[in-house]
Amino acid sequence: xxxxxxxxxxxxxxxxxxxxxxxxxxxxxxxxxxxxxxxxxxxxxxxxxxxxxxxxxxxxxxxxxxxxxxxxxxxxxxxxxxxxxxxxxxxxxxxxxxxxxxxxxxxxxxxxxxxxxxxxxxxxxxxxxxxxxxxxxxxxxxxxxxxxxxxxxxxxxxxxxxxxxxxxxxxxxxxxxxxxxxxxxxxxxxxxxxxxxxxxxxxxxxxxxxxxxxxxxxxxxxxxxxxxxxxxxxxxxxxxxxxxxxxxxxxxxxxxxxxxxxxxxxxxxxxxxxxxxxxxxxxxxxxxxxxxxxxxxxxxxxxxxxxxxxxxxxxxxxxxxxxxxxxxxxxxxxxxxxxxxxxxxxxxxxxxxxxxxxxxxxxxxxxxxxxxxxxxxxxxxxxxxxxxxxxxxxxxxxxxxxxxxxxxxxxxxxxxxxxxxxxxxxxxxxxxxxxxxxxxxxxxxxxxxxxxxxxxxxxxxxxxxxxxxxxxxxxxxxxxxxxxxxxxxxxxxxxxxxxxxxxxxxxxxxxxxxxxxx
Length: 518
Description:
This protein has helices at 2-13, 16-36, 55-58, 68-78, 82-92, 101-114, 135-192, 205-241, 252-273, 279-300, 307-311, 315-350, 352-396, 418-443, 450-456, 471-500, 502-515; strands spanning 41-50, 116-119, 125-132, 400-409. The protein is an alpha+beta fold. It folds into 3 domains: 2-37 and 416-515, no CATH class; 41-171 and 393-409, Bacterial polysaccharide co-polymerase-like; 211-364, no CATH class. Strand 2 (116-119) and strand 3 form a beta hairpin. Helix 2 (16-36) packs parallel to helix 16, helix 5 (82-92) crosses helix 7 and helix 8 runs antiparallel to helix 12. The protein starts with a helix and ends with a helix. Residues 165-229, 253-389 form a coiled coil. This is XrtA system polysaccharide chain length determinant.
């Protein structure tokens, strides 16, 4: 394989001058193109994104803390939106380079791809850069985008807070109306069902019924106790009346008069506050009537003196009479209260259906009212939090962009990298020249060895005749080789000169293409 490659190189070497001419042509054209490329100057600005404002730790748990890093990503992505690109192009005069709508669209696309926002390698520091053939234009473009970045930050903070507050205010108004409607419905229902509300009196229907039955049982026990006490007192008085007696004046009439007078005073006091139908009034009138009847009976039997008349002078007997009368009044009062309590229990049982229905409806209305009120209170609390957050954002501004280095364009162009391009053109010229020589060898091949001749034909090869080169031929070949090496060396010299005088040659070539030959 190595011998084959050497033979191919020797065969292509025959066309070395052709290769050198092609290499020179490629080098000249390539160098002209490289030096005609316009320079691009890059403007840069360093921006610090302050995401940890002083108010953030102070307002933690009191105001809403937005995700400033996510907002930073959104702002940097929306910075290159088409409206912003159009604004920058018009503001900097870049749009004057476009004469048609299609040219303007292409210009905006190039502007969007040309602006770079990169992380500068330090926490929260970013580089905003743009390259343009006009150094001043590159600087103006970076300055315009930097201004938009600063304005969008303030606008985003204020706009998001305003949107949240408007939404919460609308919701608070809606729930305020719902809360008023629920309160009115609950009040109207309670007004329409006075006396049937389960919680009136501190208990529901079943508790009220149980309390009424318990009170009835208590009254019944008190009534039975009073009746038993009256019977005991009557037995004791009968025992005292049936015992030994002594002569004397019967004071029973006087005692009855005193009791009548006492009961009459009590009756007069009750009539000042109650009607004649009040149970105590009825009981006192009944007792007064009984005492009056008894007094009349005593007067009719005044001629006969009995043991009762004698015993009535006993103070113990008199106290027992008073106790008996009091017990009798208590019995009558308890009987009336028991009747009223039974009627109340009957009314409660008769109203069971309505009371339970009112209870269920009241629970439903109360549940709706409580739910609406809780939602209203939560929305009102969030609205106050949103207002506090907006005030904190406007005063502290939890996302700020601070310009570390203002936009500045370098005096040395950043592109194109003409040195590297010239090296690539030189390598391409050498490759194309060598390829052209090899192509000529392939279309006009020759035999350089006996083995190649034998392999290419079936005819037998007897031998080879050598060429005897004269001195003149040697001198001619030497001059030819020197000329070829000089041509190839001059091509290398051109490369070195292009690398050395990069700026001067660029201005010369660009002036030639713009102004033409002078």
